[in-house]
Write a structure and sequence with these properties.
5 strands, 131 residues, single chain, alpha/beta
Amino acid sequence: MSPTFPVPTRSAPLVARRTEYRPGLLVLTFAGEIDTLTLPILQRELVESPPGTTVVNLSKVAFVGLAGARALAAAAELAGQEGGRLVVVANSRTLARLFRITGLAAVLPMFASLSDALRELLASGMQNAAG
């Protein structure tokens, strides 16, 4: 008889918090896991982001599946087309590796901390991307 392994039937919940840091600069903070079950939460928050610069804070996210990476790439492309910008905060080596392997790191700026992201964006004037 072969050993059996539990198969997860539910993912960890994904919680999202929106903080308008200043006009044209939104911080979306997620906590939990981003997989096929929680992907709609990520997509909804990204779609509802106002024009300007959006910082996606994944520092409290334990897992991002390929579908989540694709959603972030699509949101970054859309933001660029609309004259805005999307950046990511991820302090996990696993997420950094996922971004490198998928090529997302080349198209989506990644910061190790929220304070680093905000400092860089404010210094470069990106909060005014909304026009």
